[in-house]
């Protein structure tokens, strides 16, 4: 396309969408650039032309163009306008399969990666069941800006000097307030600040794992953790995740056989299954940790999103043997790009973990730590948490409702009761890759279950993960209905014999 | 001390010091708390009492108290005043030796750690030759605040979403400008954003090193790097750093013998020695990397502080075989607590290093990346660099001058020509620990050479590192004179036979 009117006509904006207009406009143009419809050095319409022909606010246009520029898609020449860049960012993964050389490998790592690197293309109107992270329009930018400003006013240069590797002392205090609900009793001395949960897993592996050690994990699980264990040269032992946690006989059998240093567990609303350990299994696994002398890495990424009052106890809250390393991420409730989280560390491990943190990045950004400390102290956190809780709960009720009404026979799911993910077990041999492509063609995306297994030979191929962190409430029912139609069409086309439910 | 007047009398402020008054006041009180002179729950004087008896501005008092509070030393009760905290941050390392259990180990890691964790105590009037990092009063807080604000205005939520693991595309572009002077030709596709140089070293080790691999390093060197290599289970092979770089025959002998995967090098104004590779040795080591198939990790932490126009070529600039991984830190010129840096990665390695970055912390803070991108694009970086260059150069000239005039016979140093460190070779058997204690008693601190060696059995015990990044110009001549007096007294007391210069 080389003519301005043509370009303007092909832009589709939805004033009723939850997605801010400037983002929609930005996404429209970005897609045309990525698809080569707009060529390098092509001059975009002027702000006025956009404004008048699209009937939108001038500020919206300016914001969209700024966003495109700061993402490297366009450049501006003083006085003469905005042009398509010569070197645009790496082209996005197209779901039909022809990825750039590395994306298949990376695809194994975790879903956020697909989104953050645009390997699953999220357009202005995509129904996104693939991402388990909140969308930028939910971020408390203005409040955080206030505390950032206060910190710069208060601490000046001190906010930018080297920080205590264990973390800024006051934030370790204020985190105790956040923990209050969870029944975990601890002190600032046991808290280690980290640059996100992923770093926490990395640091623990550095401190505890040598080449050839064994790590027991649930299967399927968060593969960002598996990637770390593998990079330390550790062997992964999978134990299948059941709806009330792993079978503890099989679990104990593997513990006896492999004597792991570490067990990696997501006991509440697990990723990807949404399943949770029963409180009985929680107590038993704590006892096993003492009996067989291993540490438990408890990855608590959304236990507080407990929509149906299951009131599960964090392992750390019943950790009578001081063998649980508790990791908390703020990425699902707050803002993932901030890269901030914390760990509660057994007293035996505080020193070696402090040293591992220091060799990893010396310290987490002092500015971010100080701003977030104030964010908690001034009560913003509690308010924002309630806000997010209600939004997520609304979506949870909507998506479970829609699944109840539209899910075809032979497809099973169990209500997780909380968290951000729902796990569908499809009939044996179901053509998932075809479903991915068909859904993508209707602009619906989700994560295939296979990416959450430690290796192809333990992979189950008949499940998918539906997340509702990034999907807008208005999109849910329609999206689930369409998806369910495709599933039942594809199921039928495979004939009865293919429709035995997976056990 | 339990009486307010006594407290106020014992506070010493120096209006002519380069250290901001509020920091001096904060440090005074902090020391009294650390030394147990002020006990938990002791009520501090009111703002007015401080103001009137110390004859200082009210704002100064408020800032000092805020700083104390946000560092966890005091707490405030609405209406009733400011009190000493019950749980104060870990007590500081006292140079006479009785450290808390872990500091000796950590002490091996690097000097910034000592300062950032208060293990070397820096009071209001300390002459600090120990730290190679700039002091907070030199940080461009106001300018950075401007760009932070612009970014929040421009990008809103997008600044806080998951970021491309390789780094925000525009900052990879703007970094090319910074590189301009260094004669390194590269593209945004070869640049990997990292959360500080330390993380870069960690990521490269993850990508390249397995247990039992060999790494060749200079000796002495930056021990923060050694700690990473060791944590990967790699063996360290030391080659002594000479004034024009390592002896390349010995170097090649070790390469042949151990076949290292990686060579870690700080070719310009090395830490801790300040020595630099001659351009001849730079070319030779590049050729060796191709001949023996190893990668070179070039740690460029201050090559641009070239005060005497030595014009050394970065290894990356002559890297004809694409075997140099170039790491650049901003901590010495900009603000260490920001945790930001970048690498230039050989094309063969970009994918595995991208994956290692992702497993390490997914991405570097998007807000920090976007703000620093703008900081460069709007010309702040160039201006700030010139500012820092001139301050450091002034100090460099002053300290070398002072050493020329006061250094006693038998003590050698060679002008590095740039960087932030000067290496003193003291007579064989010189009682350095005594010097450390005597200097500390006069409030002069520096780093003993021994902490920069990979292990005790390669340690030379007769050298010390003097850094001038944190020492104020007014303190230098007097500090060096005092230090030199102590050195010559201690040298003499040991008798002639001890004064043979180290070869």
What would your notes on this structure say?
Two copies of one chain form a homodimer. The first copy, chain A, contains 17 helices and 13 strands. The first copy, chain A, has 503 residues and is α/β, with parallel strands linked by helices. Chain A has three domains: 99 residues, Winged helix-like DNA-binding domain superfamily/Winged helix DNA-binding domain (Arc Repressor Mutant, subunit A), CATH 1.10.10; 135 residues, Aspartate Aminotransferase, domain 1, CATH 3.90.1150; 219 residues, Type I PLP-dependent aspartate aminotransferase-like (Major domain) (Aspartate Aminotransferase, domain 2), CATH 3.40.640.10. In chain A, the strands form three sheets. A seven-stranded mixed sheet of chain A has the order 4-10-9-8-7-5-6, sandwiched between helices. At the A-B interface, helix 4, helix 6, helix 7, helix 8 and helix 9 of A face helix 4, helix 6, helix 7, helix 8 and helix 9 of B.
Question: What's the topology here?
Answer:
The structure is a homodimer of 503-residue chains.
Chain A: H1 4-9, H2 21-34, H3 47-54, H4 58-70, E1 74-77, E2 81-84, H5 103-107, H6 111-116, E3 127-129, H7 141-155, H8 169-179, E4 191-194, H9 197-208, E5 214-219, H10 223-231, E6 235-240, H11 248-258, E7 262-265, H12 279-291, E8 295-300, E9 324-329, E10 341-344, H13 350-361, H14 366-377, H15 380-406, E11 421-425, H16 432-441, E12 444-448, E13 463-467, H17 473-493
Helix pairs in contact in A: 2-4, 3-4, 7-14, 8-14, 9-10, 9-13, 15-17, 16-17
């Amino acid at each position: 396309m080389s003519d301005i009117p043509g370009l303007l006509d092909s832009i589709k904006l939805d004033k009723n969408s939850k997605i801010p207009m400037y983002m929609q406009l930005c996404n429209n143009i970005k897609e045309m650039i990525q698809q080569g419809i707009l060529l390098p050095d092509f001059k975009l319409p002027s702000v006025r032309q956009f404004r008048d022909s699209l009937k939108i606010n001038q500020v919206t246009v300016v914001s969209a163009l700024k966003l495109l520029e700061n993402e490297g898609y366009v450049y501006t020449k003083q006085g003469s306008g905005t042009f398509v860049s010569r070197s645009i960012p790496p082209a996005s993964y197209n779901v039909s399969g022809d990825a750039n050389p590395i994306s298949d490998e990376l695809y194994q790592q975790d879903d956020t990666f697909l989104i953050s690197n645009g390997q699953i293309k999220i357009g202005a109107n995509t129904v996104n069941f693939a991402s388990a992270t909140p969308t930028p329009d939910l971020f408390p930018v203005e409040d955080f800006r206030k505390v950032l400003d206060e910190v710069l006013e208060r601490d000046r240069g001190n906010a930018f000097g080297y920080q205590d590797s264990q973390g800024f002392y006051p934030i370790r205090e204020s985190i105790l307030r956040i923990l209050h609900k969870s029944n975990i009793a601890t002190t600032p001395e046991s808290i280690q600040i980290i640059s996100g949960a992923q770093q926490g897993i990395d640091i623990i592996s550095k401190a505890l794992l040598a080449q050839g050690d064994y790590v027991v994990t649930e299967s399927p699980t968060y593969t960002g953790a598996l990637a770390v264990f593998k990079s330390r040269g550790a062997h992964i032992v999978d134990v299948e995740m059941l709806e009330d946690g792993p079978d503890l006989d099989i679990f104990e059998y593997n513990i006896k056989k492999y004597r792991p240093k570490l067990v990696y567990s997501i006991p509440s609303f697990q990723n990807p299954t949404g399943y949770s350990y029963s409180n009985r299994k929680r107590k038993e696994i704590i006892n096993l940790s003492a009996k067989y002398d291993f540490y438990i890495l408890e990855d608590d990424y959304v236990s507080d999103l407990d929509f149906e009052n299951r009131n599960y106890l964090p392992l750390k809250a019943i950790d009578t043997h001081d063998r649980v390393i508790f990791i908390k991420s703020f990425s699902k409730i707050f803002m993932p790009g901030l890269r901030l989280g914390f760990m509660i560390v057994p007293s035996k491990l505080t020193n070696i973990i402090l040293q591992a943190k220091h060799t990893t990045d010396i310290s987490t950004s002092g500015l971010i730590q100080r701003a977030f400390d104030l964010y908690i102290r001034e009560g913003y956190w509690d308010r924002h948490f309630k806000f997010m809780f209600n939004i997520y709960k609304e979506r949870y009720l909507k998506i479970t409702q829609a699944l109840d009404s539209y899910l075809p026979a032979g497809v099973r799911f169990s209500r997780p009761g909380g968290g951000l993910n729902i796990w569908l077990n499809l009939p044996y041999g179901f053509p998932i890759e075809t479903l991915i492509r068909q859904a993508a063609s209707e602009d619906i995306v989700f994560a295939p279950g296979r990416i959450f297994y430690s290796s192809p030979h333990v992979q189950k191929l008949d499940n998918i993960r539906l997340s509702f962190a990034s999907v807008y409430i208005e999109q849910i029912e329609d999206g689930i209905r369409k998806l369910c139609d495709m599933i039942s069409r594809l199921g039928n086309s495979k004939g009865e014999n293919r429709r035995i439910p997976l056990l």
